[in-house]
Amino acid sequence: MSINVTTRQVGEVAILDITGRISLGQGSESLRTYVQALLDKGSNRILLNLAYVEAIDSAGIGEMVSAFTSAKKAGGELKLFNLSRKLHDLLNGTKLDTVFDIRENEDTAVASFAF
After folding, report:
1. Paired residues of 55 in beta bridges
2. For a designed S-S bond to 22, which of 5, 60, 99, 111 qualifies (C-beta 3.0 to 4.6 A apart)?
């Protein structure tokens, strides 16, 4: 099963609403494609809404780290919000919660970008 991604804009921030499984194969490839398309358009303030992500595997985590790195290289930022308890615990257990800027909701996530 792949992911479904809806892209929307709030001011200068691009938000990717992700539904499904971010996993080896189409799920992680789709995430890469969407993030790269935003960066190619010059949109480098990116939020990943993970409220409806059912599961994520190591390939999905790797793809999120790659997207984070790509955004940084483009002079921007990639942040996460609306994590399930399970996903939050996974990022905490891998210490990736110290790498990603994780916010509770969309309003605080959008406001966290320096303009």
Report:
1. 21
2. 60
Residue (of 57, 69, 1) closest to 32 by Cα position: 69
**Residue 46 near residue 70 (C-beta atoms within 8 A):** no
Asked whether 45 and 77 are in contact (CB, 8 A), the reply is: yes
DSSP assignment of 44-101: -EEEEEEEEEEEE-HHHHHHHHHHHHHHHHTT-EEEEES--HHHHHHHHHTTGGGTSE
Backbone phi, psi, residue 60, to 5°:
-65, -45
Q: Using CA atoms, how far apart are residues 87 and 22, in angstroms rounded to an integer?
A: 11
pLDDT digits (tens, 9 = 90+) for 70-94: 999 999 999 999 999 999 999 999 9
pLDDT digits (tens, 9 = 90+) for 8-42: 999 999 999 999 999 887 666 889 899 999 999 99
> Which class in CATH covers the domain with range 4-111?
alpha beta
